[in-house]
Amino acid sequence: MLSFLSLLILALTVVQSQPDTNSPPSKEFIASKAHRMELLLLDRELNSNLEEYIEELQSKIEVLQRFAEMFRTPLEEAKGREEEYLSNPLHSFRLIRHMHEDWRHVEKFMRQPVGKNQIKFIKGKAKEFPLKEDAEEATEAFYRIIRTYDVRGEDLVHGLIDGVRYNGSISAIDFYSLGALHFQWGEYDKAAQFLSFCLDLVEPEYHSMYNVLGFASSEVFLLLARCFMEMDQEEYARRTLMSHPDLAEHSEPLLSLFTNKKHAKLSEDLQRALPEEFNQICRSSHQNKPSRLHCRYNATSSPFLRLAPLRMEELSLDPYIVVYHNVLSDAEIAEIKRIGEPLLIRAGLGKKNTNQNYKVRTALGAWMPDDKMDASGWPVLHRIFRRIRDMTGLIMNSHQFLQLIKYGFGGHYDRHFDFINGSFPITQGDRMATVLFYLSDARHGGSTIFTHLKLKVPAERGKVLFWYNMRGETHDLDTRTIHGACPVIDGTKTVLSCWIHEFDQMFIQPTYRPGGRVFPYSPTEG
Ligand SMILES: *[C@@H]1O[C@H](CO)[C@@H](O)[C@H](O)[C@H]1NC(C)=O
Ligand SMILES: *[C@@H]1O[C@H](CO)[C@@H](O)[C@H](O)[C@H]1NC(C)=O
Ligand SMILES: *[C@@H]1O[C@H](CO)[C@@H](O)[C@H](O)[C@H]1NC(C)=O
């Protein structure tokens, strides 16, 4: 039975734990399948270790059982005829000798620790476990998938995400952590939904295991009651508390506590959910508007393309957005991954002044070329720059960079523009056009979407997406190009992006800016 004081503490501290920010995650469990593979292997190792421990424990139990049996036999023999038993010299001798020494040895044996090695093994492996931040990140990634693809509790029970049935399902404890996260972010109705599913999945026969795992159903009831109070549904809150034996007698003081100490909801700019207009385009229910645009082989822009025309698909004429197919060979893709992957670091972007709480992007990124890059990677980079030139007919300067970006499950990029618009100085002018190579298939999710145009481009290996961020001759920033990346559900999405700058085009594309500004101008002017 929980005391009211401990309930009170529980009621107010539940899900308010903060990450220990000074220990950054050392592994990329979300973005790197290889790191998750290590975890899986470690899990397997720990499970064998647990089995060894059980064996050791069992063999001790067997020895103890034999002792109990052996010691019980004479006692049973003596039962009801103790006087007679004790007059037998064999029995007297045995009893005294036995009582003098046997129990001492048994006590020593009982005290011997079992499975010291296995316990040491787990302790030693603890440094390889995901950190609290990793677990929170995984929960957040899953939250994004849930929100963007509108996954409901009953879908999760059946492993159904955005129309795809996944093997496996999630446990009561998993539901609790999702409920707690939704509560923390002020989404009380969703939180209540997940907590109810958690309670449905609680198996009474697992009670002792839940205890070991630090999971108490009273916490779920408390949090569920708080959700109802936050939604001004006091009657539901009361009923929730009344239905738990430990909480029933404290329900009134708990209700008034929840009334007086409302949960501090996150402010608008800390809200984690991607906007609904974004989410709707990501879902499989969204279909691009049928267009009159055709696929064709574009062989006009360079001698290279006249020899090897690329299949081009026009997605939009204004703004100009096209997809080229089969631009890079498998060998080239493998080569870029070989040189780029060792350079990958966190490329998460956070909104300013929000303690990085809201993540605009969750991915790994690397710039190429880079000092640390394997020099044998230069030829493939040169080939790619030339391919971009051939494809787009635009000029690439000699200090051009490519950015490799890798999204794991739940990895996303909120709406943004690629143009810089003077937010930092750049000598080659603004990013006039963007070229995005897809180096892997995201099996599910991970599309690139243009929210204003309601256009979805699935991430498919070998494709290249190309668009202009500025309008034709005026070079006005084209805000219709606002775009983002849907959370990846299954697989890893790797893209290579390149920005083509306006000043590099000065000899092929004369620019007229309204207001009579002469091109080229110094970027500091504008
Ligand atoms: C689901 O599991 C079954 C049996 O383990 C397996 O045969 C099947 O391929 C799995 N399906 C998916 C989509 O992973
Ligand atoms: C071929 O591509 C270039 C550069 O993207 C473009 O300017 C041109 O209009 C395209 N040609 C055709 C026939 O679509
Ligand atoms: C570009 O920056 C200027 C000055 O900060 C601002 O007024 C303008 O709205 C920005 N344009 C876009 C499209 O963001």
Automatic annotation (TrEMBL):
Domain Fe2OG dioxygenase: start-end pairs: 397-502
Primary location class: endoplasmic reticulum
Record-level Gene Ontology MF annotations: iron ion binding; L-ascorbic acid binding; procollagen-proline 4-dioxygenase activity
Record key words, sorted: Dioxygenase, Endoplasmic reticulum, Glycoprotein, Iron, Metal-binding, Oxidoreductase, Signal, Vitamin C
GO CC entries: endoplasmic reticulum lumen
Cofactor: L-ascorbate
Functional note: Catalyzes the post-translational formation of 4-hydroxyproline in -Xaa-Pro-Gly- sequences in collagens and other proteins.
Full protein name: procollagen-proline 4-dioxygenase
Organism: Drosophila guanche
